[in-house]
Amino acid sequence: MAGAEPNRGAAAWPPVPAEDVRRLLPELERLAEEMATAIQRGVPEYARPRNDVYQASIRGAVKHAVREFAARITDPRRPHERAAGVFRDIGRMEAAEGRSLEPLQAALRLGARVAWRKLGQQAACGAMDSAALAPIGEAIFLYLDELAGACSDGYAEATGEAAGEIERRRRRLLDLIVVDPPASAEAIADSARAARWTLPRQVAALALEHRGPGYLGPLPALPPDILIDLTRPDPCALVPDPEGPGRAQAVERGLRGWAAAVGPAVPLARASSSLRWARRALTLAARGITPAPGSVVRCAGQLSTLVMFADEELVAALAAARLGPLRELRPAQQETLGQTLLCWLQSGGNAREVARRLHVHPQTARYRLRQLQVLFGDALREPDTRFELEIALRAQQLVHAAGKLPDVWELGQIH
Q: Cβ(9)–Cβ(84) under 8 Å?
């Protein structure tokens, strides 16, 4: 190639006398044919007897390699980019056909053995000086290494590009599924085929975030069928078949170093709802309202909390309306009687159970319950009122346990 940089590995090539090179030239075409035949017979992946175009391409590649080799041993400083480019393309084609590099490497080794055997035969019959065998043999295996390296480079480039394209398609598919409202079933199905992703019957969304600002932990190591996009402002993932055997444990292990919430299992068409609930659970977990055993909050175990905090201002207003009778008490009395009332509601009105849960004497529990009866009166007999009182007390208990009250809870805070 005119103007190309000389081969940087030229100094490693052994010198071969010009006379010996000239003796090789008439045999090159026959040698290339023998090598191509041996490869097609010895490597099953390249044996396609009924495909004339494929056979011709194999023979063409072998002939090109042989001619370039002859040119290189004639002039070791000859640029080698042309041969490297051809075999880089071959490596890319192997990747495109979904094969590993092993068949190609086997073909290169087989071709080198055929060439070495042919040289030995020529030396044995006196057609070549036997002293030339060693340098030519060394050159053959140096050339083999170069071609194998070029194939590997092309293969790596192609697989990297393919993986990048599949990843891009999977991120696009995730967008189509979790957008609210989702794309049409036909658009999702087409995108799933392009992304090589099997449409599941059920999914669960994952809302993700690093454990803290500036955290540089490992990327999630999730099973390959989980769609994930960490480039979004709100990173998320989609887990197919979330209730399958071992699925929860695999997700938990893969998310070490990340805070995450798993939305409820839903049909694929409702994935946006699962993601919305997962994001809400993650926000509540950051405030300490939902517990987070390990690194993952599971919405399935926090549904009542998610319901209560779906509209936080509304539940704060409910607390302000229903817990008004406690406002006239001292703060310590408010806390004591509020805990007692919640315990009474949760234990079906059983005073002994209230005493057991609060670790107080039954007489103490009864005294507190009489105080509550005076404060709330007949309202404690109304099922709807008891239900609303329990919601208000449980929500306020969670908010108080989390620490500082958000502004919205000033409305329902007991003074």
A: no
H or E stretch at 205: strand 202-210
Whole-number Å distance between alpha carbons of 199 and 238: 11
Question: DSSP assignment, residue 415?
Answer: -
Residue ranges of domains in the chain: 10-162, 200-308, 312-410
Report the C-alpha gap between 62 and 252 in whole angstroms: 51
Select, from the ranges 23-27, 143-147, 292-296, the one with the highest average predicted confidence (pLDDT): 143-147
- Give the pair of three-digit tokens for residue 112: 């080198």
Residue ranges with strand state E in 224-320: 227-229, 236-240, 258-262, 266-267, 296-298
Alpha-carbon distance of 358 to 361, in angstroms, equals: 9
Could you give the CA distance from residue 395 to residue 342 in angstroms, rounded to a whole number? 11
d(CA 115, CA 203): 57
Contact 408, 312 (CB under 8 A): yes
How many residues are given for the chain? 415
pLDDT at 199 over 90: yes
Among 71-75, 229-233, 303-307, 323-327, the minimum mean pLDDT is found in 71-75
The one-letter amino acid at 295: S
Question: How high is the pLDDT of residue 4?
Answer: 37
Q: Which CATH architecture has domain 10-162?
A: Orthogonal Bundle (1.10)
> Quick one: average pLDDT of 290-307?
79
